[in-house]
Write a structure and sequence with these properties.
This protein is an all-beta fold. The protein has strands spanning about 5, 10, 20-25, 30-40, 45-50, 55-60, 65-70, 75-80, 90-100, 105-110, 115. The strands form two sheets. Strands 2, 4, 5, 6, 9, 10 and 11 form a seven-stranded mixed β-sheet that branches. A four-stranded antiparallel β-sheet has the order 1-3-8-7, with no helix packed on it.
Length: about 120
């Protein structure tokens, strides 16, 4: 099992910045890729950014150049630095973790944190 604790959401004006954090705790599984997804009202959940255990990253085109994903493997924590925020970034942001053991791979989701960009 993996427990995920997200923090850092909130309200900000356009052009502002926020930093999301997601700490994963487990005593039995290996943490592999970690990422962030978001879901705006009336829309499907979409990938924002993902980072592998060796630090490779992938971003949605809509956030490239504005968002940066990073991780601290010693703390099993993933971060999302969001700069130059736009109204269309408003959504619930979910942390996602891929974990595994010798038997299988497992997918875990955080509880979600609201990000609102509005003037």
């Amino acid at each position: 099992q993996v427990q995920l604790v997200e923090s850092g959401g909130g309200s900000v004006q356009p052009g502002g910045s926020l930093r999301l954090s997601c700490a994963a705790s487990t005593s039995t599984l290996d943490i592999n890729a970690m990422g962030w997804y978001r879901q705006a009202p009336g829309k499907q959940r979409e990938l924002v950014a993902v980072i592998t255990s060796d630090g490779s990253t992938n971003y949605a085109d809509s956030v490239k150049g504005r968002f940066t994903i990073s991780r601290d493997n010693a703390k099993n924590t993933v971060y999302l630095q969001m700069n130059s925020l736009k109204a269309e970034d408003t959504a619930v942001y979910y942390c996602n973790v891929d974990a595994s053991d010798d038997l299988d791979e497992y997918d875990y989701w955080g509880q979600g944190t609201q990000v609102t960009v509005s003037s």
